[in-house]
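Suppose you are handed a protein chain with no further information: no name, no annotation, nothing but its sequence. What can you learn? This example shows the usual starting point.
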Amino acid sequence: MEFEEFCATYGEISDKSTGKKSTLVLNGAQRAVLAELESCRKGNRPCRLLILKSRQLGISTLLQYYFTWLLLYHCELETFLSLCHNKQLSKSFITTMMKIYMRVNKDNVPHTVSESVMEDSRGNMLMWCSAKNYNAVRGTNIGIAHLSESAFWHSKSSDWSEEVIRSVMGSVGNRPGTYVVMESTSDGKNNYFYKLWVDSLSGITSYKPIFLCWNLVEYYRKELSDEDRKQLQRLTERETQLVKAGYTLEQLNWYRAKRREFQDEASFLREFPCSAEESFSSSSNVVFSDVEIEECEKHVRRGSLIDLVKLDDKVNKINLVTNYTQWIDVHDGSKKRYFVVVTIGGCVDDSKHNVITCWSWREGDVLELALEKRYVCSLDELIEDSINVARYYDHARLVVEVNTLNKLGLSSKEYYIRKLKKRYSRLFLEDGNVGYMMSYKSKLRGLFSFKRRLREGKIIEHSSIAVEEMKNFVMEEEGVSADIDSHDDTLLCRLILCDVVDELGPLTAPLNPKEFYGKRYYYYVKKD
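A reasonable first move is to predict its three-dimensional structure. Written in structure tokens, the prediction is:
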């Protein structure tokens, strides 16, 4: 019996529109997966599929029927494994397969062998276990494995899912007639599923990557009323993109109605992405909402590239420091205080960047980006450039993040600290030590302050780079950080700035006080 005939004869599902029982008729997404499964079976090849999907496409239903069909008509003495996030979900998958067995032949229903193993009349074993108890599959000769929602197997660490998959793959022989199907919605980039997807696209693994969009399913359409037609005459930028991509008006109408059920676009894309890129860019643990990102984007604009003069005291020579992006000139006549915030990264790691930012602090406790430069250079050059910017901006208060300096060793750190103190006076100190030490607590403190200022309109962002980093800033068990293949060097300048300014409170002291104290911090100041 061919599979589609099997579905038409024994398939039974609940219709989403009416809630009534109906015959299983495969939708577009199910047919796409079936084509790959049958290609491997008929080609006598091992089947390894990695499926990235939208919600509610019926893929689990397809696999339940397909694997039952294989066990009934094409397999003997094989072992089928259902592996989900918890044991109850794994057993539920098997329970549905049991119901299909009963509809085909009530005398051929698998019997219980142990707590998590059943056996049918052809000698096939059906077993289930939790992904958290993956060691249970070690030593088992598995022929068919279904791994469900594996992108979410990282509650303890990102390596957890890798251990599970390695354990399963070690139990599946690399022979024709074996199947490993891993299917999941996305949970961002900070997990093994994403790494496996990228490697599969590059041909490094034996998995074939398949992305399934919601538009493959006929259910995700909504007929247009006269009012809907009027409303669709005015499209958002996102809706215009969908039209250009070939989405029908009925699909667009469904998207518009469904989108209103979600807080923001990112939340919708986590469930119903239109591409693999969109799917991975939307994580359930993203820190910044669409509303907060849109607030920042309001003021993003192209700045002016400028050069600043740097005087080398040793040889009394003037050099130009180039390619700073400037939005506010210190000589514009307005009364402002300035902060220069520096994060160190690119001095010791080419994959990271050094960032110099300058911020104006004006009446009403409003912070606005004045200047920024993001680049890779030596630590000596970064210190000189930072001092140069601070002097240019009315002898700004200079805040240097020193976490990286601590990694260089005590002697190197002391050398650069002495250089800072010798070359510039208005330095930021924490507990009497030069520089800002970022910790788990201080990063969260700065984050909450930054988000509060966004809500209150008290921070004006001009940098598109910072906005892009906001989109890929995620919350993990270890704290907040950039997602995989992303950066946060520029964003960290904002968090440090907000934390420092909040602690200092209203700045009413004269320009060059001998000491300036905050609740925890103060500035090292000597007479120039």
